[in-house]
Amino acid sequence: MNQTIEIMKNHRCIRSFLDKEITDAIIDELVAVAQAAPNSINGQQISLIIVRDKEKKRRIAEIAGGQTWIAQAPLFILFVADFYKAKLAADKVGRPLVIPESVEATIAVAIDAGICLQNVITAAESLDLGIVPIGGIRNDPAAMIELLNLPEYTFPLNGLTIGYPADRSHKKPRMPLAAFRHDESYDPAKLPGLIDEYDALMHPYLKSVGRENEVNWSTNTLNYYSFVYFPRVYPTMKIQGFKNDK
Ligand SMILES: Cc1cc2nc3c(=O)[nH]c(=O)nc-3n(C[C@H](O)[C@H](O)[C@H](O)COP(=O)(O)O)c2cc1C
Q: Is residue 81 a contact partner of residue 242, using CB atoms and an 8 Å limit?
């Protein structure tokens, strides 16, 4: 339909990067598109940390459970939930800062971060860069907080690794559109058949990319969802001031 839509529909994560730097001018643009994103109540509760230092990227790769592509790519951006600025405003106007204690704050800031993240992804992919979002940093959020000097009322939500692709990976098939789109109201009845259809499609796909052990979508998803895969998130959030009890 147009080039932007084609770029977005053509997305696939990249996990192998060339040894090629990203210019300061491009990084400035990526930051600018992130900041231009809509955000909840104009509270502007997202901050970015731009990481290019090799040793820091190596450490982040380790924190994220050994994700080598973080160290290999020239650029890592951390998307920080940041109510520290609101705390400064609260002190300035002499009123209490209550919202970080609520589940609403966690939802709102996670949505804000997702929008920022996608703005950067679309811009990066339009410049022939490759990306992979990195939720793996929540494996040890306290280590990220220490490494990047994050103050109270902040939390490392997600990362983004960016670089020039060494190869363009296969495009991962999605579920049939009908499992994603409901018109006017949610229709649970159609889902089991569509999930069977997708599992039958994913099995040969995973085999073709050498990930046969993941079996299919249902099995692979439950490899994550049958336990709390990042148990340190909630205790660390509480320490940072995100109580999530209101
Ligand atoms: C919020 C978020 C966190 C993610 N975290 C990781 C991660 O830590 N490591 C990784 O290799 N991929 C990560 N991914 C990439 C997903 O695995 C990937 O988007 C998904 O498998 C679909 O594949 P595709 O993006 O290539 O279409 C993440 C994606 C999102 C949106």
A: yes
pLDDT digits (tens, 9 = 90+) for 89-108: 999 999 999 999 999 999 99
Residue 51: inside a domain: yes
CA of 132 to the centre of ligand 1 (A): 6
Handedness of CA 180, 183, 188, 189 (dihedral sign): negative
**How far, CA to CA in Å, does 194 sit from each of 181, 190, 200, 201, 221?**
12, 7, 10, 11, 16
- Distance from the CA of 120 to the center of ligand 1, in angstroms? 15
CB of 202 closer than 8 Å to CB of 176: no
The CATH number given to whatever domain includes residue 62 is 3.40.109.10
Look at residue 193 and tell me if it is in a domain: no
Q: Ligand 1 pocket check: which of 63, 132, 160, 229 to mutate, most ligand atoms within 8 Å of Cβ? A: 132
